[in-house]
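does this look right to u?? s-citryldethia Coenzyme A version
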Amino acid sequence: MAQDTLTIIDNRTQQTYTLPIENGAIRAMDLRQIKTGPDDFGLMTYDPAFMNTASCRSSITFIDGERGILRYRGYPIEALAAQCTFLEVAYLLLFGELPTEAELTRWASEIAHHTVLHTAIEKFMEGFRYNAHPMGMLVSTVAALSSVYPEANDIHDPENRLHQIVRLIAKAPSIAAIAYRHSKGFPCVHPDSELGYTENFMSMLWKMAEPKYVANPVLARALDTLFILHADHEQNCSANAMRSVGSAHTDPYLTTAAAAAALAGPLHGGANEAVLQMLDEIGAKQNVPAYVKKVKAGHGKLMGFGHRVYKNYDPRAKIIKQTAEQVFEVTGRNAKLDIALELERIALEDDYFIKRKLYPNVDFYSGIIYQAMGFTPKMFTVLFAIPRVAGWLAQWQEMLNDPEQKIARPRQIWTGPEVREFAPLNKRASAASSRET
Ligand code: SDX
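got this back:
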């Protein structure tokens, strides 16, 4: 009967090794026994950008890139997006089960009572320049929360951890709203604990002189659905940052700030802002073929296209595209949608993109919806970060509870010089002249 093992012959020594295969993987540490002699460190794996390296075991989010499948704790994203609220999904990600009605009521009340920011944090945010990028404000302010809650350092106490998790999920929208109001020169609006999570966020964003903000139910539902779609996504760049920084037992605020910093990159969560810049650059539907030609010639990328894991249509992009139509019925159609649809139509027929399995990802249509709702492009990645706080914290907690995990510290392949004799300052020829001789 076939064994779940891998037999390796080291042709340098004619030695044979048999390694166990578990969950479709071999343990990299099992390679270290493969040596050419007693002084040999042993074999490592070399995997820049972790293209083919599992860093952990996880039961939070499952993705099948070839089939375009995404599930949170086993539930298809399509069912969760259609039937849950974001807080329900955040509970699922963190606790592993969908909440009962009583659990959800208690969870929502807990979150609602932690949305207020310490005045020291509000004053901290007033210090940013008027044109500060909201992601810079978010990353810095989440880190600053660490200075207000020093007890968060005790990451081994589950109750204390949960308290910080609730604070972070609750305060992310409050920080985001102040960043938005700051960019507009508007005074900040305090949270209204009578409103739901997303409606309260909209109130903190857009309430002006009215006694109580009333959110448009279609827009509130659309934003809540977008939060669900952005809540987690397995071991992406920012989740990896969360796990890596968290593995040093850094407090959850500084760790979440590190993850948010990774998300800000234009190849990751910053892509939704970059998509709008790309659509603005294209300008009109008739300019799409020329833009696609430029990308195929290697000049830039189609932002919002492609994915490390999905080699099929990102299931989130499909749902976002449907959500766009509902939003536009309220806000009026965003002209950029026609450019985006034409870009998708041409790209999906073009062999360059087909061969590379490049499809629209979560960022391709989300920005168009956010812009139609009234958000400026600089806010788009902040809107990605708010729900992803729940996913990052679920990944962080799973890492802390995993007995196999320890401080993350990869190895390297040395390509530098062998040992060199030290040269005192007055004996150093410049690198240029020594190259000439
Ligand atoms: C997110 O990991 C996650 O799960 C992330 C995320 C999440 O929810 O956390 O899903 C969110 O980050 C979505 C991705 C958003 N980023 C973008 O839309 C930026 C544009 N996309 C690309 O930069 C790229 O597709 C990545 C970064 C998303 C994936 O890059 P990979 O897996 O490293 O692929 P690659 O760069 O090795 O590309 C393979 C080939 C290359 O061509 P060749 O060298 O083989 O000729 O495909 C080309 C690339 O040039 N390519 C693209 C392209 N993406 C890849 N060509 C044109 N346009 C693109 N968008």
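The two ends are 66 Å apart (CA to CA). idk if thats expected tbh
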